[in-house]
Amino acid sequence: MAGSSYIDPYPRNEPCTEHTEDIAIICSEGAMCFGEPVLDLVQRTCAKLEDYGDSIQTRESKDAIDLVKQSCPAQDNSPEDQRHAERMLLTHSLWLIDHETLLNDKFWTPLTYQIRNLPDESSVYTWIKGDHEEFESVQSDIDTQFQKINVATSKEDLERWISGYIGFQVNPNGSEKTVIEWSHKVADQIDDIG
């Protein structure tokens, strides 16, 4: 079966009425997001989605940085451990990455590869405070190296993007076909990893 033990694709010939969205939080330890812990911002934003009914739930992987580390070929990880980490990361369709981790030389190669290979239905967000002393340089580095990443410059932007993605883009209540297709693409990619 496609995706084996990592993901069960939703059947294409049956209704998809609920989805649990796995959110990969890929941040250095103690990373803050506009003055608060990233996990707090995500959980607060997701809690506001109650109006969308029971069709969408969220599950945050706050230690997804460990999967990125495990996927790095330069580390002392076996090829099987690296492939396992890549497969696990694929099961998350929303990635939140602080810009320090994103532009860290030791993570650049695996993140570039993995982000480029995410299905189109996935989203990756990072953030930079508008008054960051190197804002333009950091923004330029991200834009030139990672075309699939949206960069928030305010807490409100990031909250709105997370809410919109979870509430509309991957919510079976309105986006059923998107969720089904995402699950099949991810399962196929997991199989391609070998």
Quantity of strands, as a count: 7
Number of domains: 1
* SS class: alpha/beta
Architecture per CATH nomenclature, i.e. the level-2 architecture:
3-Layer(aba) Sandwich
How many H/I helical runs?
Answer: 8
- Low-pLDDT segments, ≥5 res: none
Beta fraction of the residues? Answer: 15-25%
Q: In CATH, what is the class?
A: Alpha Beta
Query: What's the gyration radius in Å?
Result: 16 Å
Spatial gap, N to C terminus: 13 Å
Helix content: 40-55%
Strand order of the largest sheet: 4-1-5-6-7
Structural account:
This protein is α/β, with parallel strands linked by helices and about 190 residues long. The protein has a single domain, classed as Rossmann fold. It has 8 helices and 7 strands, in the order βββαβααβααβαβαα. It has helices spanning about 40-45, 65-70, 80-90, 100, 105-115, 135-145, 155-170, 170-194; strands at about 20-25, 30-35, 35, 55-60, 95, 125, 150. The strands form 2 sheets. It has a 5-stranded parallel sheet with strand order 4-1-5-6-7, sandwiched between helices. A two-stranded antiparallel ribbon has the order 2-3. Helix 1 (about 40-45) packs across helix 7 (about 155-170), helix 2 packs across helix 3 and helix 3 (about 80-90) packs antiparallel against helix 8 (about 170-194). The protein starts with 18 loop residues before the first strand and ends with a helix. The model has no long low-confidence stretch (mean pLDDT about 90).
